[in-house]
Amino acid sequence: MNTAGFLPEVATRLDGFFMALPAGRKVATFDLDGTCVHHDTGEAVFYAMARRGLFAAHALLDSEEVWRPFSRADVSSPRAALERFAADPARLPEMAFHMIRAYQELLARAGRETAYFWAAQVLCGLTPQRVREISRETFQAELARPVGAERLSWEGASQEIANGLRPYPAMARLLARLRGAGVETWIVSASNRWTVEVFAEEHLGIGPGRVLGIAPLVAGGRITAQRDPDMPVTGGAGKVEAIDRHIGLRPLLAAGDSMGDFEMLGVATRLCLIIDRGNRELRKNVERLRAAGDGRWVVQPRFLDPPAESWS
Description:
The protein has 2 domains: 8-39 and 167-301, HAD superfamily/HAD-like (Rossmann fold, 3-Layer(aba) Sandwich); 41-163, no CATH class. It has 13 helices and 12 strands. It has helices at 8-19, 41-52, 57-61, 64-67, 79-87, 92-110, 112-121, 128-144, 169-180, 193-204, 237-247, 262-266, 280-291, and strands spanning 27-30, 37-38, 148-154, 157-163, 166-167, 184-192, 211-214, 218-219, 222-223, 253-256, 271-276, 297-301. The chain starts with 7 loop residues before the first helix and ends in an 11-residue tail after the last strand.
């Protein structure tokens, strides 16, 4: 295996993993955002849709499911800003700011599962094919942008969003080597499934049939804001539930970069590969498990480390 990009000790563990592969069906599961690509594909598409006004605004306004997370008093609803944009497209900058702020507030105050599912709910009214088209356009633009961040402002308030996507070639090579060794490679992501399908196929060589992501119910060919009873929200414990339900075999190797991947990493039977971007909680948990004698955990620093960025 070409182990360029991996630490020597990580490369050694990976080589040992391949030499000891068992017979029979074999599975490896990978998170996408922060694990196989620098930055977050789902967020990049959400931010682009907000800034370009690509939401099906009337479908969102007509769906009470979209607005239910904002019943919390400490999370500001962007509904009024979306209504103003629907009546007057010149209000696009205002709408974009409030939609992005709403997502970031949900992430900070309502939790990852709520925020990630809401970022998929706002696709309602669109077809899966349209989301794939927007995703492809967004990736083309973000792959050409410098990696970093920019600050958005509106009426004295501001917020920061990430710029630039970069696939990790070392992870793409690892995925290809696994497939060559007869291991099924799956992406299990908390971004929306249709966006992940595009990135996984074009940059990681993984077809749509081996992608699990957040996917609200599709009815009449269009995405709704309702939960699909057959698809868990693929973050945290939902990743393990999706693996059990849709793959039917626990992975030999799992890879992730955040506490949202921790449960999936924990069910890997041979190797738990951490892409370390400085998350203190994840580091603390891995150190605790290693100290207890769990030798499955292997830590690889992220492959791209812009000096202007800091992570917590």
